[in-house]
TrEMBL record:
GO biological process, one term: regulation of DNA-templated transcription
Pfam families on file: DJ-1_PfpI
UniProt cross-references to InterPro entries, sorted A to Z: Class_I_gatase-like, DJ-1/PfpI, INH-QAR
Top-level taxonomic group: Bacteria
Location of the DJ-1/PfpI domain: 3-165
Gene3D superfamilies in the record: 3.40.50.880
Source organism of the structure: Mycobacterium ahvazicum
Protein's UniProt name: Isonitrile hydratase
Length: 212
């Protein structure tokens, strides 16, 4: 089973690597990072390089697609290279999924029209403008449409565990969870917009704006 994870300049690293770490633990699953060209792309702050091992033309029938987010998604919403690839491969995927603002690329390709979906809280309005209906859930599933979206960054791990359950079985998902020792016990209760206080939201907004 082949999982394709598209990469692009200014991608958020964990959006891609979180699901990779879950899915690559399953022996029957191969994960390939794809892009418009082979080679390195830099993550959103430029501090980390990740490599595309195949081009979109080379991966034309993946079983699963996981689209990560990042600042770079804003320039790609109407980019025909990635939008065209998503529209071309989606009819044959088992699932087409996104993490964080990767949902903007699914929406830009027309795959979320009229569907509820989630993304990073800062991109909620833009997601709505692109034809989806934002909901502040960690993972949103539309199994008949074969679409799953996950909220910001770390939620991609949750989505990948659920995806593993759907693709293989519950025990496989639990085994992957155990292998990566994913047992979150955060020191603070500020991991969602609903939980964060005003000062935390203001600081987060300041930091996000500094990276745009």
């Amino acid at each position: 089973m082949l999982v394709a994870i598209p990469l692009f300049p200014r991608v958020t690293a964990l959006d891609a690597v979180g699901p990779y770490e879950v899915l690559q633990r399953i022996p029957s699953i191969d994960v390939t990072f794809v892009g418009d060209r082979r080679g390195e792309v830099r993550t959103e702050n430029g501090m980390l390089g990740v490599a595309c091992d195949a081009t979109f033309d080379e991966i034309d029938a993946p079983d699963v697609v996981v689209v990560p987010g990042g600042v770079g998604t804003r320039k790609l919403i109407h980019d025909e290279t990635i939008s065209g690839w998503l529209r071309a491969v989606h009819p044959r995927t088992i699932f087409t999924t996104s993490v964080c603002t990767g949902a903007l690329l699914l929406a830009g390709a027309g795959l979320l029209d009229g569907l509820t979906a989630t993304t990073h809280w800062r991109a909620a309005d833009l997601l709505n403008e692109l034809g989806a209906r934002y909901v502040p859930d960690r993972v949103v599933e539309h199994l008949p449409e074969r679409i799953i979206t996950a909220a910001g960054v770390s939620s991609g791990i949750d989505m990948a565990l659920r995806l593993t359950e759907l693709l293989v079985d519950r025990v496989a998902a639990q085994a992957a969870q155990l292998i990566i020792e994913y047992d979150p016990q955060p020191p603070f209760g500020a991991g969602s917009l609903a939980k964060a206080d005003e000062a935390t939201v203001a600081r987060a907004t300041e930091y996000l704006q500094a990276r745009q």
